[in-house]
Amino acid sequence: MAAPAQRAKSDPAMDLADLPAGDHRRWAVPLGLAAPLAAALALWAYAVVRTDTSRLGEFGLVGALPVAFWIALALLTAGFWVCIRDPLRAGGWSLAYTVGLIVMERATQALVYPTPLYSWAWKHDAVIEHLLTAGGMQRGDRLGDMAVYDQWPGFFAAQAALVRLTGVENAAMYMAWWPLVSSLLLLAPLLLIYRTFTQDRRLIWTAVWLFHVANWVGQDYFSPQSLAFALYLGVIAIVLRRGQRPGRGRRSRQAVWTVLLIPLITAIVISHQLTPVMLVAALAALCLTRRYRDWTLLVTLLLVFLAWNLTASLPFLRDAVPEMVSSFGDVGHNLETGYGSTPTGTGPVIVSWVSRLLSACVLLLALTGVLRRRVLRHRAMPLLLIGAVPLLMLVANDYGSEMIFRVLLFMLPGACFFAAAALLPDVRPLAAEPGGHGAPRSVTGMRAVLPGIALLALTAAFVPSYSGKDRLSYFPPQEVALVRQVFDRAPEGSLVVAAHRNYPLAYASYWNVRHYWFLDDAKSHVEEILKNPADRLARDMASVEPPGRAYFLLTQGQIANSDMNGMLTGEQLANIEKSLTASPLFEQVGRNSAGVVYELKRTDSIDGSAGRTP
Q: pTM for the full model?
């Protein structure tokens, strides 16, 4: 006699209700979990098609997203929460939902915008182009401040090799997708780290989910930090999984693992300035515990770090160390975000507060988890230490006014683990097999609903925190074309002047074309420009010698950044443009809907002695 499941397969008219209870559940559970995921992804795809980014408002992409996107996000989060309520359910569904979240978070911008975001990503594309053009590293006498990138070339050399290997024109062809790629790279090390301290699948996957929700600071873009952070987590994951206090029979294994990790730590050291310091602090903190007291890897890392900094990167450090020393201990200064970074206007202010509240809520949940889960706190003490040591960096340096964001990034793996423990009721450090002692129970009622609502609120807050400032991060094709036109026509030795560096290709041809952004100057000089724009700028640009030419560039990205961050208003920048248009010293050589370009044409009548040398 055929089994019920076999008869159902051969008889299409048979209803699932005719199956025995066990077979019905075998079908119902996967369908119940797949339906929200499929519906969420379908709605998200519909929302992407319907999103119009031609005119972004002060809320960035948030104001352009249709309602379908928010429904999709809510469905995805609700499905995930239902999925993890069963502590014994296989992790495949949790993985599917988490990947769905990463795709919705990080692929939306790549799909709705025709050009890559972030001026810094375009800057890194220029560094890769320089490596491809020059064929090797160059020093400060040739590149000035940009030589720092040649002194930490790991990321850029790898991308240059990828460009050559794939045959694409440049890295801009794929860098819009880098946030998705870099976020997916973090999944494996995060899972390894969390599985070191618990077998409770609910806790593991909720922590991974929270990490990607709380990681709004934007360091996943096309940058050395994104790759170095993934390598950092990889090293930490291996150390936590394998590292125990050396003893008989273990020292040889520790030595083997140290040798295997040398390529990873070398890649970190030659790719990024800050990440090796964070790794040193993390490994040193682990050495404070008896379980992970292995100095071999820490000493190896320090040797590689010192070897690189005393050779390849020494020219940069020789100039930078005095400033680092002067800022050491000045926490107030290190927390400042720098000139012109105060959000201005309703949208930027609200977005800024939403992002702060998102981070504050995750950190508060983490503190609650640490205080309430005594057993988990004891078992995961190494993770707690790794999450806390980045705070020491606030004492050390301001890192270009970004230290607070980098500290938050490196705190997140530990913080999200304990935040997940606070969200989940009845957490156990170890989840036993069905019926075993200590297995967490499925939770129903308000104890399951309220944490789910909190998770939904945190997930929704990610969207404005991450993409609420896209008005200043997105450069339409017209702006890219206008800037490219400038550098295509600029001879070697030319100068490009702009209000701010927030535009695509801002560092194009930096090895033979100079760049000057007057908002980087002292406030007194900016006021001089505002008082008499054409004359003051002409004197600033008069030092260019033939065959070089001097250009002034004003674009949509500069206006958005200046206006939203309280630097100069749109009206002030418009007055600068009017002054150059009316001046006989400048000639308009390019214009479209995204900006305008002027060329200085009468340098012979300008008092160059009163000018500046940018």
A: 0.86
